[in-house]
Amino acid sequence: MAKWDNVTVVEHPLIQERLTLARDRHTGVAQFRKLLEQIATLMAFEITRDYPTIAVEVETPLGPCQGVRLAQRITVVPILRAGLGMADGVLQIIPEARVGHCGAYRDIESLTPVVYYKKLPPDIARTDVIIVDPMLATGGSICEVVSTVREARAERIKILCLVASPEGIAAVNRGHPEVRIYTAAVDDRLNQKGYIIPGLGDAGDRLYGTA
Ligand code: PRP
Ligand code: URA
User: Fold this and answer.
1) What is the model's pTM?
2) Which residues contact 117 (CB under 8 A, 6 or more apart)?
3) Any atom of ligand 2 within 6 Å of the Cβ of 205
């Protein structure tokens, strides 16, 4: 799907099967939480695929061996609340990553994003940043958090989401054209309340049982 700039749709069958289950309205809180975590773990392989490495040598029990380590540290930035459900999945395979938190919610009437909390690692500028949030709807929340992370002088930023809308992708491309989006699906459109159709509903509510 090369229809949008800066978007990678991760179409692995395991991811697509779990996304289908997550979309299902009959999937309960516990399973939804598990699915979000599993999908994030699987997608983390794709989002880190082009991260540079440095050659290192280790000693095996039988002698020296050439290997690699990641050139940069990684910072995972979940957008509260729903991003927390994906951050744990990424940390499954990158347990040494730092975690910076950003809290953002959409004003229910205007859909304008409000950043209400920010705690980022002091050396975030020297790390590869992965912003995680399952839903890229209008794009307001993610664009605001990308700006927040950029204000902290981070430059290498990627977005990991589960479901994106064409409108949200366009907003990121306009506001932050250098930032690549990794998503499991690009859905049809937004409804009048800014929800992704068909989407999966309110990700935060389904994750925490607050509907
Ligand atoms: C949801 C979602 C995103 C945002 C997407 O969060 O997790 O952060 O909406 O919408 P946007 O692209 O139009 O900004 P929400 O505001 O519902 O907060 P929550 O995670 O605390 O439920
Ligand atoms: N936030 C959600 O949780 N779901 C949507 O469809 C849009 C925004």
Assistant:
1) 0.96
2) 80, 101, 102, 103
3) no
Q: Are strands 53-60 and 63-70 parallel, antiparallel or unpaired?
A: antiparallel
Give, in order, the Cα–Cα distances in Å from 31 to each of 54, 194, 202, 209: 39, 25, 15, 12
161 Cα–ligand 1 center, Å: 11
Buried b (16+ CB within 10 A) or exposed e, 117-150: ebebbeebbebbbbbbbbbbbbbbbbbbbbebbb
Looking at residue 160, its amino acid is L
Which is the closest atom of ligand 1 to the Cα of 139?
A: 12
C-alpha 35 to ligand 2 mean position (Å): 17
Contact between 163 and 200 (Cβ < 8 Å)? yes
Are 154 and 176 within 8 A, CB to CB? no
196 CA → ligand 2 middle, Å: 6
pLDDT tens for residues 157-207? Answer: 999 999 999 999 999 999 999 999 999 999 999 999 999 999 999 999 999
Span 46-98, pLDDT tens digits: 999 999 999 999 999 999 999 999 999 999 999 999 999 999 999 999 999 99
Q: Which residues have C-beta within 8 Å of that of residue 6, sequence separation ≥ 6?
A: 172, 173, 177, 178, 179, 180, 181
